[in-house]
Amino acid sequence: LGRKRHGADDISSGERLNMILWNHSSTFRSSNEYREPPYVKEEGPPDAVCVSYTHDRDYGLFKEYPTGKENLKGRGWCPPSEFQYED
Question: Which of 10, 30, 83, 86 is 20 to 30 A off residue 56, Cα-Cα?
Fold first, then answer.
């Protein structure tokens, strides 16, 4: 999941509790699937909830950057440019 677009809705009240689970497998990390993940070209634009100004290079195409975060424009890694949706 970490190499695919994913997101969460903003919350306007209350709090969010996230559980992050990290695993490590030296066998998997030495595999071709890890080194060359099986990306496919996006067939359409991402759902707006699934873009992140910290991770997605093309965030500004789908949403306005929050005030003070404009410096992150184009700095994300997702998706790799050759797999990015093109209108």
Answer: 30
Structure tokens at 62: 């789908």
Give me the amino acid identity at 3.
R
| Residue 63: CB atoms within 10 Å | 14
CB contact at 8 A, 65 and 47: no
19 to 8, 16, 53, 56, 64: CA distances (angstroms): 13, 10, 21, 22, 28
Give pLDDT tens digits for 3-54: 677 777 777 889 988 887 778 889 988 999 888 888 889 999 988 888 888 8
pTM to 2 decimals?
0.64
The dihedrals phi and psi of 56, each to the nearest 5 degrees, come to -100, 120
